[in-house]
């Protein structure tokens, strides 16, 4: 794993805030020569510390309501079926635009982040798209209201 | 709300993949004049469709294990206390580096995304930092294993 020093961390923090900062702007903010900043950023990219550059979409394009759903499948007699069934649900959910994130959760579970225009729509989605799936043991839905930390994820995840 | 057409969406999709693409690279990919692309991006920024540019950190700098924890507070006799207590827990959790995300969940709940070197550390964190809080009704922890969609969030959220 790449070792980072204070300068690397300072550069990364600035780029996290605004990845459009120029080399000379960063150099000025950190009181270091441009050549140093240029070299460090090059290294950070080569070592995949910076994996990629992206954009965060503004409020208008983010769903107004969010929920996290936990889905637990009933353990079937044939173990192999569970595996295939979970894979199938994961793939299906991932294709739906208002499913912002979906991941496996343990051997028999799935966690997804669902967006919608309002909380009713999120609940309806879970009722009509998730709860109707056969062979589920449990479906739990938790609303996500005001973010204290990490609210950028919605603008990061949302599709256009 | 800003109306987007197909060209706007195509530009946004390219920038989401790689926000370092130059105007001329985007122009070439989309078969449109540079002046058009330049104008569209300027508008997308002005209208806050593009809120900001950022970086996603690579695998080495992401926690290896993740879990989502749902915390429900016991409803106290004095409603006002609940409000202050939830606000206090939110603030406290937000300051901890391995709490990648924390948000309010309904009137009496909190949802947080916890990272750690391995699953044991995530569980220990929840046991030692969350479950010890007084006045809780319920704490549920769901592991987040392989992402089917949205895996960039960890590299987006993680602090350096």
Description of the structure:
- Two copies of one chain form a homodimer.
- By secondary structure, the first copy, chain A, is an alpha+beta fold.
- Chain A has two domains: 41 residues, Winged helix-like DNA-binding domain superfamily/Winged helix DNA-binding domain (Arc Repressor Mutant, subunit A, Orthogonal Bundle), CATH 1.10.10; 99 residues, Alpha-Beta Plaits (2-Layer Sandwich).
- Helix content of chain A is 42%, strand content 28%.
- Chain A has a four-stranded antiparallel β-sheet with strand order 3-4-2-5.
- The longest helix of chain A is centred in the middle third of the chain and has 16 residues.
- Chain A is elongated and about 65 Å long.
- The relative contact order of chain A is 0.16.
- The mean pLDDT of chain A is 94.
- At the A-B interface, α1, β1, α4, β3 and β4 of A face α1, β1, α4, β3 and β4 of B.
- β1 of chain A pairs antiparallel with β1 of chain B.
